[in-house]
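It is worth pausing here to work through a concrete case rather than discussing structure prediction in the abstract. The textbook approach is simple: state the sequence, then state the predicted structure, then interpret. We follow exactly that order.
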Amino acid sequence: MRSENTLFVGGPLDGRVLPVLVGMTGQPPKTYEVPEPHDDGRPPTVHFYRRVPARVGRLGLPSGWKYEYDPAGKPSTSPKWPWRKHR
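Step two, the predicted structure:
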């Protein structure tokens, strides 16, 4: 599989560039989860990052990606159908 060096902004990985596996379309996943283990036996704390465009070109197309820290966590996993009214 191919990977792409991706910048992380905010949270525990702030300023780090890590290799992230890309999918068949050449894009990294929309969200990235980082578990932080605890020494006292508690379950790990999971930090969430959301993919955003790193640079936007003259035509409005993204050129590369970065991950920004999302302290709120995951959104709902329901699909966004174009014919359904969104609330």
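Step three, interpretation. The first strand starts at residue 3 and ends at 9. The two ends are 38 Å apart (CA to CA).
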